[in-house]
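Quick question, first post here. What does this chain look like in 3D?
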Amino acid sequence: MTRYLLVSRSAEYENRLRRLLGARLQTVPGEYLAFGTTEVVGQVQDDPAVALLGPLLSFDESRSIAAALREKNAGLGIIVVREQRSDLEDWVDAMDIQAVLSPEATDTTTLDLVERLDAWLVTAGRAQPYSGDAIASGVEEASTLTFVELAADDDATDGEDALDAEVADESSAVEAWVLPPMDPAVRSEVITVAAPKGGQGKTTMAVNLAVGLAEVAPNSVVIVDADLQFGDVANVLDLQPTRDLADFVRAADDEVQIKTQLVRHSDDFFVVPAPLSPEFADDIDAASLGRLIDQLAKMFRYVIVDTTPGLGEHTITALEHATDGVFVSSLTVASLRALRTEFQLLTELGLIPRNRHIVLNNVEKNTGLIPADATAIIGAEADVVVPRSQGVLLAANAGAPLIHHDPRDSAAKAVRALVQRVDPAAVPTRRRIHRKARQDEPE
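> Answer (accepted):
Ran it through. Tokens below.
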């Protein structure tokens, strides 16, 4: 019989709690949320005394799960596992929870908080005593106190652990996300997407790279829209950001502030939007953009930078910091010659990224040029050839990434090949396609 429940998208945190709580813990992967809160609650066995929600659950997800679990078991104790604490009051205003626990809290603090809440629930008559392992003692007078009052006097949250476990007496309508920790053994990759001219499909490539890489590294991918004048990553993804690149470069040295400003897409990646208005571009200097890219590379496995067409100072800065360069051109003489000139200049400057990917986009027959002609003009063979497809426009108008909107589309398959050049593990799966189809079904 299980005593505790964890709903989380973090396999690492799940493994850690299993080690601490053993057979007393049941886990429900957050991926079940793709099918609704009812599906999550339907996976819950027995009647757990304490539920931990997070990390990597949004405010709305946490609130809906908490409400559904409480409807099933009114006496349930709920702990939200999340990193940010600045908006704690908002979370508790809208949610009946007993405590907030940092995912970085020590094992001692985590176990102590869970077992003290369990003991209080038993003493207060909200849960039955556990017939297995002993429950923490020392709460004889808990029935006369709220858990907030009880824990406020607890030494477990003193000293170095004071920020690890926080007792909630209020709650938040602002989404908070906890990023998976970066493994020191895994290097971050900065992928700069560039084009010599506008209208080549650069943003489409950048967005779909983010989507595809997020399939194998969920919540570990961020796309930076550094097309300063008219960047439209947010528009392509149907997002309505309130913060933009100018806000991020001002906070380039503050990881906590960056986390609070990130915009999260439902496909498990984050977005740093372009300036909301072209005049704000003047507030962003190239050096500040470089510092932001460096900071993001410490936080994310993949940093994708969509750039301004041409070789302005901001694009050059993005290429200076890149491990991979994706260069996009249409199959026209003017664009190909411009790309050749761009390569020549970057070679002279020593700025060709060590991993270079050339993409020919919107390729169609009977235009007087074939990919072999592009090789002759550029002086290098194209790595990915993307055929012209109506699916690209349909996906953009739907505010959906191409590789998920119609995975069988010829252009989507070609773009998938680009994603796999960066990470060969990013293969399409039935689960991902099925999830997207369910989301698109009419209600």
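DSSP finds 18 helices and 14 strands in the chain.
Confidence is low (pLDDT under 50) at residues 133-145, 148-177, 430-443.
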